[in-house]
Amino acid sequence: MLAVTKRENVQGNAACALGAIAAGCRFFAGYPITPSSEIAERLAGELPKVGGTFVQMEDEIASMAATIGASLGGVKSMTATSGPGFSLKQENLGYAAMTETPCVIANVMRGGPSTGMPTRPGQGDIMQARWGTHGDHPIIVLTPASVGEIYSETIRAFNLSERLRVPVVVLYDEIIGHLLETIELTTPDDDQLIDRKWASGDAKDFLPYADTDDLVPPMARPGDGYRVHTTGLTHDDRGFPTQVPEKAEHAVTRLLDKLDHHAELIESYEAVMCEDADVIITAFGITARAAHKAVKNLRSQGVKVGLFRPITMWPFPEAAYKKVTGNAKAIIVAEMNAGQLVLEIERICAGKPEVHRVNRIDGEVITPDELQAAVKEVMS
Amino acid sequence: MVEQNIEIRLAGSGGQGLMLATSLLSKALVSEGRSVAQSQSYEPTSRGGLSRSDLVVSDGPADYPLVSKLNFLVLLDQVAVEESKDMIGDGAVVVTDSKTVTEPPKGDFQLVALPMLETAISLGNRRIANTIALAALCAAGKLCERETLEKVVTAGSPKAYIDLNQDALAKGWEMGLNR
């Protein structure tokens, strides 16, 4: 299919649904939850048109399970949720990481903890998205900041998930999810889409978790005759449970090394006017949009300030961050939570440059004015 | 360069159709080549309670998609005044309903009080006050061409309401022009 571009007003959550369809997603299982429900609503209409399947499940746990099951069945699959539902999905999310089942989870962040403020925005699931499920596990988390980027990052989420056999979370706040923006909706070319690597060769010799140069074993397509055993228990290259120390260590190490090995493919960030900046604001989602405006306003007053915006949140683009912020005198981490990303930034910076915080947990956004005031205070 | 965007808010009580009106305005502006970012806030009740929808209009993608200093404001109910009154920019155009907004905001801006709900009722349906307000705002603020608005309102109307909405649009436009 050739790329087609349309200019229209699209809602953030609708962009996620349309991005999924464009990426080749053909299965969605979910349970409605504010402020993500429009993703399910839109896909309920779109999936049947392209021969896909939409299932409203009995709950959040089953939604994640069905998403994994459909993916093992050979179909690009996703689910969508918000905070309380994301909590319920964690056990099965770990199962997807351990069994290396490609899947995409959209989490539209509302005010938390618990049921919190369903219609108000939050950015408090940053650490949960990285460490919500137990054990040392690989996961990729993408944090788009505009409607157009939700569309393109959802496509990228499927590509990364299929290429690397890892769950990918598309994480954005309620403001971006419910925002309508005029965007260019470009249907990707077929060669911009990545499908998983299918097993080929003699079925007799097939090992579902074999070592490969790229650390990503090919998957057996159901019906092709390969024998597969799928389990969340620590398994050997045949897929069967093992407690042999060397094999257990090897299995988990490969899972984690897989993301390091493909770091270049995964990494994505935006650095705005950081080259000569004394202060660099670090922010994501709607807060990064406020920071962008603050940076432009302050630059027009001659203040040397920049913005670093992680688009891939996890694994955090650490090397790039060190390089971009190396000459800055101070960093301000702005986020709509009590201080989560800042912990990672403090770890990376280790005291140089100094790290300051701007936080809000009242269901309101951090405004450009607040950020301009924070920059001026840090510089004074 | 600091971009000069236009910031618009339509606010009132839930059920007045202001999100729909804002969405129609978005479509009109986009069809005239502008870019918009539309956001909204509402309370979890189907009627009543504060409801508002905001637009940031720009020539390309907006850096920041939310409003902070309004250039245009429509107030269809007193309940909406409190939240918006401190965000009105100097020289803004503020269109209020002359009956339901009993204590309009005060400041260095143009206040246009119009009998929008009363006009809607006289046309036969109070639910078309949103179209009257939208047309009055577009005419008073020169936001878009009348023809463009007519097109998107027709496209956005259920069949049975097309004529009624066009009547409402004509009335609102006239009121906005002759404020």
Question: Please, what is the CATH homologous superfamily of chain B?
Answer: Pyruvate-ferredoxin oxidoreductase, PFOR, domain III
Which structural category do the helix and sheet elements of chain B fall into? Answer: alpha/beta
Compute the number of strand runs of chain B: 6
Largest interface: A-B, 26 and 24 residues
Overview of the molecule:
The complex is a heterodimer of chains A (380) and B (179). Chain A has three domains: 5-192, 3-Layer(aba) Sandwich (Rossmann fold); 203-264, no CATH class; 270-379, Rossmann fold. The radius of gyration of chain A is 21 Å and the shape is globular. Chain A has 13 helices and 15 strands. Chain A has 380 residues and is of the alpha/beta class. Chain B has 179 residues and is an alpha/beta fold. Chain B has a single domain (6-177), classed as 3-Layer(aba) Sandwich (Pyruvate-ferredoxin Oxidoreductase, domain 3), CATH 3.40.920. In chain B, 36% of the residues lie in helices and 26% in strands. Chain B is built from six helices and six strands. Chain B has a six-stranded mixed beta sheet with strand order 2-3-1-4-5-6, covered by helices on one side. In chain B, strand 2 and strand 3 form a beta hairpin. In chain B, helix 3 (116-123) packs across helix 4 (129-141) and helix 3 (116-123) packs antiparallel against helix 6 (162-177). Chain B is globular. The mean pLDDT of chain B is 93. The A-B interface holds A 7-9, 118-119, 146, 148, 175, 178-183, 286, 289-290, 292-293, 296-297, 300, 365, 367-369 and B 1-3, 23, 26-27, 30, 34-42, 44, 61-66, 68.
Using brief descriptors, characterize the structure shown.
heterodimer; A: 380 residues; alpha/beta; Rossmann fold; eight-stranded mixed sheet; B: 179 residues; Pyruvate-ferredoxin Oxidoreductase, domain 3; six-stranded mixed sheet; 26% strand
Helix-strand blueprint:
The complex is a heterodimer of chains A (380) and B (179).
Chain A: E1 5-11, H1 12-23, E2 27-30, H2 37-49, E3 53-56, H3 60-72, E4 77-81, H4 83-99, E5 103-111, E6 117-121, H5 126-131, E7 140-142, H6 147-164, E8 167-173, H7 174-178, E9 180-186, H8 245-261, H9 263-266, E10 269-272, E11 279-282, H10 285-300, E12 305-310, E13 312-314, H11 318-325, E14 330-335, H12 341-349, E15 354-359, H13 368-379
Parallel strand pairs in A: 2-3, 2-4, 4-5, 5-8, 7-8, 11-12, 11-14, 14-15
Antiparallel strand pairs in A: 1-9, 5-6, 7-13, 10-12
Chain B: E1 6-13, H1 18-31, E2 35-42, E3 50-58, E4 70-75, H2 81-84, E5 88-97, E6 110-114, H3 116-123, H4 129-141, H5 146-155, H6 162-177
Parallel strand pairs in B: 1-4, 4-5, 5-6
Antiparallel strand pairs in B: 1-3, 2-3
Helix pairs in contact in B: 1-4, 1-5, 3-4, 3-6, 4-6, 5-6
